[in-house]
Amino acid sequence: MAKKKWSPAAPDASAQDKPATLKDLLRPEIVNKLKQQSDAMKAEEQARKAAVLEQAEAARKAEEKRLENDFGHLLSKSSADWRKHK
Hints:
Elements: H1 22-25, H2 28-68, H3 71-77
């Protein structure tokens, strides 16, 4: 069997070699403030989407109720097979 050649371990990248990120450059208070603002904006967006869905559901129910009272719609939707209802 051939002997394995051992290569020296690659030096680990230290923190100084890594490029600085925006989070590292900003003060922690500013980072926390931005996170809170982001959370608030996400909550507003979620509330807005819920309101839109609720409004669409209410419009759908109103249209369904209106069509229940429309004789022409009920007639076209119903089956013409009178043998089922003997």
